[in-house]
């Protein structure tokens, strides 16, 4: 999935997952991209299937591969029909000239991870949190529905998270939880304080990449350090299993304001191909220059001189 040689810039214990290190009571089986697609649809993401490729709609008429770390040659791209009036961006192999860059936030070198790698304050916070919070799998539907809904509502009121507004409704949350538990291969971990669920993480492994897909907790457990403890438990378990080579946690947002970057996640830069409708490109450049610059990444504007219009959208 992540080829060797791409640029990387260095920038969360319990009885189930000891604070220092140790094999956990769970593991991640390899799941298919189709399972990841079903999970994203449960989150309300707009996923489009074009031929054998799955795309996520980032904005109206603009798409990116559902697995952003998946590398594809332009000749093999099967684009969504509506992308002709917007655009798409995807990672390309080293042999193909890129015109943009995709930045992903990932934890790498998992096999060597241990608590000792973290700074003193992180280690201390995790060890203190492990004295009060237990991380273990959530496999009881009633617990996830009853206590998970309370936790999610607290999380939403604190963050005003842009996705999942419907999950505040208890009926909708029940249906969502039932559908999540029905998906094969997902690892649902709970953070428990005196056997009361206070935080939930959902992760899965696609090939060699572990996807830390969802996390939410209530305000009180946040103050107790549950976020650091949960992330540490996942990293330690992944290190013990040896099945994953990296943990993907999302797009890289920058070192100063990114939770994961401050805890050792790397900015993985993937050479990419950005293909835009000429009118959409002009409008984006004029009206949303910051978005346009973010799409280009480290590539200068003149990189577009190397892109022939006839090759847009995988045409030859």
Write a structural description:
The protein has 316 residues and is α+β, with helices and mostly antiparallel strands. The protein contains eight helices and twelve strands. Strands 1, 2, 3, 4, 5, 6, 7, 8, 9, 10, 11 and 12 form a twelve-stranded mixed β-sheet that branches. α2 (120-130) crosses α6 (226-241), α3 (141-159) crosses α4 (170-182) and α7 (278-287) packs across α8 (289-296). The longest helix has 19 residues, at 141-159. The radius of gyration is 20 Å and the shape is globular. 38% of the residues are buried. The model is unreliable at 1-18 and 302-316 (pLDDT under 50).
Task: Summarize the entry for a quick read.
With 316 residues, this protein is an alpha+beta fold.
Please summarize the sheet with the most strands: 12 strands, mixed
Strand content: 25-35%
- What is the 3D form? globular
Tell me the helix content. 25-40%
Task: Let me know the average pLDDT.
Answer: 86
Total helices: the number is 8
Q: Rg from C-alpha positions?
A: 20 Å
The span between the termini is 26 Å
- How are helices and strands ordered from N to C? EHEEEEEHEHHEEEHHEEHH
What's the count of strands? 12
Secondary structure category:
alpha+beta
Which spans of ≥5 residues are poorly predicted at pLDDT below 50? Answer: 1-18, 302-316
């Amino acid at each position: 999935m992540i080829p060797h040689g791409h640029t990387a810039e260095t920038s969360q214990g319990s009885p189930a997952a000891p604070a220092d290190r140790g094999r956990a009571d769970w593991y991640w089986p390899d799941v298919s991209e189709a399972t990841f697609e079903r999970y994203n649809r449960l989150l309300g993401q707009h996923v489009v299937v074009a031929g054998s490729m799955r795309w996520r709609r980032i904005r109206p008429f603009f798409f990116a591969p559902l697995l952003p770390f998946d590398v594809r040659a332009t000749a093999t791209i099967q684009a969504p029909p509506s992308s002709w009036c917007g655009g798409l961006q995807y990672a390309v192999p080293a042999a193909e000239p890129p015109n943009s860059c995709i930045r992903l936030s990932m934890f790498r070198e998992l096999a060597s991870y241990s608590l000792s790698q973290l700074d003193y304050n992180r280690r201390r916070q995790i060890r203190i949190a492990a004295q009060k919070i237990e991380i273990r799998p959530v496999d009881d539907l009633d617990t996830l529905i009853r206590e998970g809904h309370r936790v999610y509502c607290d999380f939403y009121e604190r963050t005003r998270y842009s996705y999942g507004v419907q999950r505040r409704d208890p009926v909708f949350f029940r249906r969502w939880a039932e559908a999540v538990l029905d998906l094969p291969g997902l690892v649902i971990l709970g953070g428990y304080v005196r056997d009361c669920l206070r935080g939930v993480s959902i992760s899965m492994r696609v090939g060699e990449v572990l996807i830390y897909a969802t996390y939410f907790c209530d305000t009180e457990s946040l103050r107790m350090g549950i976020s650091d403890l949960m992330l540490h438990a996942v990293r330690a378990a992944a290190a013990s299993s040896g099945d994953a080579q990296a943990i993907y946690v999302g797009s890289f947002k920058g070192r100063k304001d990114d939770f994961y970057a401050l805890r050792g996640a790397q900015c993985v830069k993937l050479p990419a191909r950005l293909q835009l409708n000429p009118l959409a490109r002009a409008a984006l450049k004029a009206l949303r220059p910051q978005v346009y610059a973010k799409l280009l990444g480290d590539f200068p504007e003149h990189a577009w001189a190397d892109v022939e219009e006839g090759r847009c959208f995988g045409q030859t």
